[in-house]
Structure formats: C-alpha cells, structure tokens
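Protein in question filed below.

…
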Amino acid sequence: MKPAGRLDVVPWANDTAVRTLFDALGGAGIAARFVGGWVRDAVRGEPLTNEPDLAVDKPPETVMLALKAARIKVVPTGLKHGTVTAVIAGAPYELTTLRRDVETDGRHAVVAFTDDWLEDASRRDFTFNALYADLDGTLYDPFDGRTDLAQARVRFIGDPDLRIAEDRLRILRFFRFHTWFGRAPFDAAGFEACRRNAGSLRGLSGERVRKELLRLLQAPAPADTVAAMREAAILDHWLPECDGTARLRALIAREDRPDPLRRLASILAPDADATTIGKRLKLSTQESLRLDVMLAADPVIDVAGGPKAWRAQIYALGGNLYADRLLLAVDAPGDWRAALAMARAWTPPELPVSGGDALKLGLKPGPKVGALIEAVERWWIDGDFTADRAGCLAELERLVRAAP
C-alpha cells in the first residue's frame, strides 16, 4: 500500500507513551500504524477522541512477546480476532493484527491473519475508516477516504450490499457516521443499500443496537438522520415507537447539554412502554427507570407556577430527573431557563422530622406514624420548605393531638 501524503499536523508526535510503544514494536520487527478514529481526527485537524487503535503486521502472540519483553503491560483482549491491548502509563492502546475475512454470517466473522495492508483495508466498512498513519504522520489512503472526509460523505468500500451482508450492523454505523461526519445528501448507493437491507437488522443483538443508537443520538444534530432512518424503515423493528423528530428538534434547541437517553425519549410516542423498550434494547436497570420517568404522564411539569412549584417538583423527582422532564416539556409555558438553572443548582433539603419523633410523642409503630410524617411533609412542602425542625415538630404535635 503506497503512501498518500502526510498529515499536516501529527498530534501524537511528542507523546512519550506512543514513542515507547512504537520502539517496543519496531525493535521486534513489527510494523504498526494508527487506523480509524485517531487518523480521522488528525486528518480533520480535530482533537484526538476515543482510545487509539493500531494495526500491526504480526500475529497477536508475537506482539504480546514483544510488549512483555519491553516490560509493557499487555492484555489479551481478543486473541481470536487478533486483538491485544497495551497499557502504558495507564492509557490503553488496542493493537489488532492485519486480517482478512474467511467467513461471515452477517454478525460474526471468521478471520485469518495476514501481513497485507491492502487486504486488511479492503475488509473495513467505510473509506475513511481505512485511513492509516505511521508514527511520523505518513498517511495511507487506499480508497480516497480523505476526500470523503473533506466532502462530508460516508461511503462504503466496494459494493454496499456485500459489505452489509458481511455485517448487518454496518447499516446503523452508516447512519451513525453520517450524523457525526456527514452532511446532506446521503451517499445514494449506501443509503439505498441500507434501505434494501433494513429487514436484516432483526438478527442483531439489543446490546449492539443500543450502543449504535445512543452514539448516534449523542451527535450534535442527529434529527435529520433519525428522520431519514424512520423514512427508510431502519427503525421499524428495534424502535417502532418512534413517532418523529419534532420533539427532538425542540429539545436540542433548549438543552444545556446533550444526553442520548433523553433524546431517545424525545422521539418516542407519548404512550410508549419504557419497560418494553428497555428490554428490547438491553438498557440497564437505571436507564430503563429513567426512561420510564421521562415518558410518564404525571406529574405534569408546572413551569408557570414559578420557583415555589419548581422546588416542590425538584424535591419530588430530584434535580436530574426534573431537568429531563422540564427539557422534554417543550410546550409548557413559563420561564423554563430559570427552572432549569434551579434544577442544576438547588439541593433539596431533608425533611427535619422522622418517624422516631412521632414515637417519642407516645405513638406506637404502625401505618399511622407513616401517615402523620407524610402529612407533615406535605405541609412543609406547601410552605416552600421554610419551616425548620422546631416548626415541623410543632406541626407534628398538632396533628397528633388532632388525630382521633
């Protein structure tokens, strides 16, 4: 594979850990090149994101021996697929041996190791994911991925239908990469291939779909992509509850920080079942519970009620969940910016009395104690949390005396 120029800026040039890694590999006769995310970032002149991925031209066992000889910690993260991870100064560097596909079933590939860089590049999904760079910034670009990046185009390597048949997850990756790196219009051949093969997404695991959807929704402006996916039936199986992007667009216009789960909630129908969606997409228990609160009809967020109403609802929901509900309540009248600022800054107080205080007044343990404390809490909230412990104790005593 011939060089295709050099990077204008080599962001890892002065990285001591990177130099240590390349010295260890080079000393053992192993050629290594960055591939994927770091190279895309460098070509675009953007700060490096994600963890570095490197391709190497020797089998994983040889790579591990070289790293151990250099006293570099190495973890066999995926030997079957040729991947090991070097850890230097606490930072991971994933190294994968050059590969070719022997057999694919649309989800998993049986691979064979090779020392042919072009063969390795040819099995990758999109042109700009087959960009490689040496330590000194020499660039290798067998499929003109640099031009595609410059033109904000996501283009499959070779026949899109064949690439999707190898791994159907590439349908979702096509849209995810377009959201982050592309602009309208979509590459026509790629988009139509994704549309034709949308039904094959049924065979994916919920974990893989969840990861791609949330990474897509994390992008700065995913609404147009989500609309295109819905139109092309990409979401029909995994997210049939999607009812459009109007609320997503409104949410993005007002949110103070992007949140993919909240954005997911914004594209779901009002009567969507969070439990069903959580199971389908293999959301964590915490994510499912949060989605359930975001989709719930009650309580209705009272923005117009002013600071007193805001504090009461923040107390009930917690600041983060209140912010979720507030940002999703795009039609609610009132000063939502001030309400959001309060949700971010105000820490709800703790009720100054407890069941133990009721017992000290002579009551016996039981449901009556809980009901009295709840009554004091409602009184305290209605008073905008101004009553101190003495005031709450006085109200508790009054309720005890008035109880039958």
